[in-house]
Structure formats: C-alpha cells, structure tokens
Amino acid sequence: MTTHRPFGRALCAMITPFTDSGALDLDAAGKLAARLVGEGCDGLVLNGTTGESPTTSDAEKAALVRAVREAVGPAPSLVAGVGTADTRHTAELARQAEEAGADGLLVVTPYYSRPPQDAVAAHFLKVADATGLPVMVYDIPGRTGTRVEPDTMRRLAEHPRITAVKDCSYDLLTAARLIAETPLAYYSGSEELNLPLYAVGGAGYVSTVANVAPRALRAVLDAFDAGDTARAARLHARLLPLTEAMMAAGLPGTVTVKALLGGPVREPLRPAGREAADGLRGLYEALPQAESVV
User: Fold this and answer.
1) Where along the chain is pyruvate bound (predicted)?
2) Active site residues
3) Angle at CA 154, nearest 5°, toward 180 and 165?
4) In whole angstroms, what is the distance from residue 196 CA to residue 217 CA?
C-alpha cells in the first residue's frame, strides 16, 4: 500500500460568500481562498455542501471556480463539487467545471432516488468519462440515503480517472480495507476521523472546520508525518470541542462557519442564533491558547 495524494493532504470545503443582498460575492471568495491557501490548505473544494451548492445556480458555480482560480493561482488544487441527483446534469456541470479551471471533481452519490448499486456505478463512470479531470467519489450515505458499497468502490477504482474518495461513511473498517486493496486516495470528510483515517493510510482530509482553523487541522497531519504521534493525538483532541460544536450540535457546518467568519446564508438555511454564535466564538478563541499549532 502506497499512499498517494492527488489533491494534496489538507483540503478545505470552502464556504461560498454572499453579499448582504444575497448575491454571490466573488471578491470575498477570492480573498478567503487566498487566506486559506496562505494558512496551509493544499487545496479547496468549491461548490460542495458547505458551499451551499443546492442554492447556487450553474452560472454561479462556474463563476466561483474562475474567481478562486484567479485569486490563488495554478498551484493549489481546486476540486469542484458537481454532484446532483441527475447524471446528465452532473456531467454537464463536470464539463463546465473543467472549462472554468478546476483540477478535479467531487461527485456525490445520487440522492433521494436511491438507485441500486449498478446504477450508482454507472453514474460515477459516466461522469468520469465526461471530462479529463480526476474524480473524488463522495460517499455520505447519511445525507444521500445510499452507500457506495465496497464492491462498487472496487469497480470504480478500476477507472483511471476515479482516483479518490471523500469518506463520510463512518465505517473505518471498510475504509481501511479499501485503502489497502485499491489505489483510491481516501480523504476524511468527518473531522473527528481525520487522524484515525490518516493513520491507516488515508490521504488527508476535506474539512469544513478548516474554514476557521486551517493551521490547527494541518498541524495534526504534520505532527503525524514527523513521527510525533503523541503530539498528533494531542492536537487532534484539542480540536474536538470546536469540531463537535461546528459539526454535531444541530446546526449545518455552513451556518457555524458563517457564524464565525460572518456573512449571510441562503434559505432554507438560517443564521445561527446569538447563543450558538457566542458559544462557537468562545471555543474558537480558546483553540490557539490550548497549544501552539504553528
């Protein structure tokens, strides 16, 4: 087993900034992207769930990729979320993302219709054939209602452009087996599992929390790679209260990130209330005091 990292190690699932009137704020997006890259992100995932993709138009998705590419230059990986419940539409978004300057595609399992596994495989394969870009399979059955089963994942791994997985399956056993058995690069999509998955050969993470704590998240991987596993575990543990408050306390990650960074969300999401925002702020401000992460 050789760990490869087609998009780097530390990826941020970036929010999409909007103006007070609700329009796409490309200037703010470019500034945020540049800051995240400057603070240790190897790449950015745009137009994902954290980026409020269900409420942005196709034209806005392409404009965001173009603006971020211009802001960060050619070096960081830009992975564009193109997943929909419609294979044809997903393929169209994939071609649009390639034209806009993306380096890869994040493709979620078709949701709501709950297709059987042969149809799941056909969906990913058709999207992979639509462009020359590498594909990251997004396995998040808690949201889509459908798991990418292990045999399906093994089949997908045979395609030369299906290279990675964003794993939100909460099945570390299966993920570890597939890391060992396939060439797929596994990225944790659940911050509490970033270090455990990395320790069994994962490639890194795609993180919502990285919008606000990119250095702290990367420091965990840096410590592990340096052989200081005790420090890696300690830094990972320091992040858990903030992670829990942002990702597991009843509010969507988009809402909790924007409670810390500012900016409106689009309906049906609603901003965090004062009490929740104050709690998040307290945990965020306490994080650097716990231990240096630079």
Assistant:
1) 50, 206
2) 138, 166
3) 75
4) 13
Burial class (CB in 10 A: 0-12, 13-18, 19+), 157: middle
Residue 293 has pLDDT above 90, yes or no: no
Other residues' Cβ atoms within 10 Å of the Cβ of residue 175? 25
Ligand-binding annotation for 50, yes or no, is yes
Rounded-to-integer distance, Cα 169 and Cα 189, Å = 9
Residue matched to tokens 């769930």:
49
Q: Report the alpha-carbon distance of residue 46 to residue 1 in Å, rounded.
A: 29
Strands (E), 184-280: 185-188, 204-207
User: Tell me, what's the pLDDT at 155?
Assistant: 98
Give residue 106's region: left, alpha or beta (phi > 0; psi -120 to 50): beta
Q: What's the average model confidence in pLDDT over 43-69?
A: 98
Residue 72 assigned as binding residue? no
Q: What are the pLDDT digits (tens) for 198-211?
A: 999 999 999 999 99
**Average of pLDDT values for 145-167?**
98
